[in-house]
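Duplicate of #3305? Posting structure anyway:
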């Protein structure tokens, strides 16, 4: 799938689940639970052991059901490996221009991390499809709104500190979508195999997005 089609799926979804766990076991089931709850975009982070194998497994078991990405990508070598394993987009906590160039070369979406106005603009001008504002909990929705003032053309995805209490505020502040980690992909639920809890959480986040957009 090309960059534009992937971005349409991500922006339509409104939520990008950050799948992070100390164990790779059962993460395909976690992603399926997210999809069953309506969260149709998820990134498997490279902090997960054997992350490439997890990406391959999720792609094999879920196919195109979900927009599958790779997260915590710090260099172009890792980005290329993730794309070859089946990731459709790359997410990073930091700004690496070589990662952006590689993704544009292969027509894949890329969402680098940045925080200051200078970093955010640099990422956008370098070709980022969305700029991941991280850690978003430092400034909260007010900071995102302040950034949007002079830089309204830049798509911003706050990540870090996005939960059921803050999600709507970030959307009102101008977020194009939300990166949600442990507040959605609950480590305790993963460890206990409570996939229904993850599905229910996913449904609640999707409900927040839909209500904000006047869709439900």
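Output from current build:
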């Amino acid at each position: 799938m090309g960059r534009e089609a992937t971005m349409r799926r991500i922006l339509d979804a409104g939520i990008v689940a950050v799948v992070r766990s100390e164990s790779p076991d059962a993460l395909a089931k976690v992603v399926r639970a997210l999809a069953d709850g309506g969260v149709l975009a998820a990134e498997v982070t490279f902090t997960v052991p054997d992350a490439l194998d997890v990406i391959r497994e999720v792609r094999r078991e879920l196919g195109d059901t979900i927009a599958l990405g790779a997260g915590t990508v710090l260099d172009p070598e890792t980005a290329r490996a993730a794309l070859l394993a089946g990731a459709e987009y790359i997410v990073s906590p930091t700004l690496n221009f070589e990662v952006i160039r590689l993704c544009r070369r292969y027509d894949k979406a890329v969402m680098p991390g940045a925080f200051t106005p200078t970093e955010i603009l640099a990422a956008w001008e370098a070709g980022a499809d969305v700029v991941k504002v991280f850690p978003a909990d430092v400034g909260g929705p007010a900071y995102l709104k302040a950034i949007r003032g002079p830089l309204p053309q830049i798509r911003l995805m706050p990540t870090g500190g996005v939960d059921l209490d803050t999600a709507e505020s970030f959307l009102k502040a101008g977020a194009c979508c939300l990166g949600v980690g442990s507040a959605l992909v609950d480590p305790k639920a993963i460890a206990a195999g409570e996939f229904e809890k993850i599905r229910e959480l996913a449904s609640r986040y999707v409900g927040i997005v839909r209500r904000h957009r006047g869709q439900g």
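Confirmed duplicate; merging threads. The longest helix spans residues 195-212. The chain has a mean pLDDT of 97.
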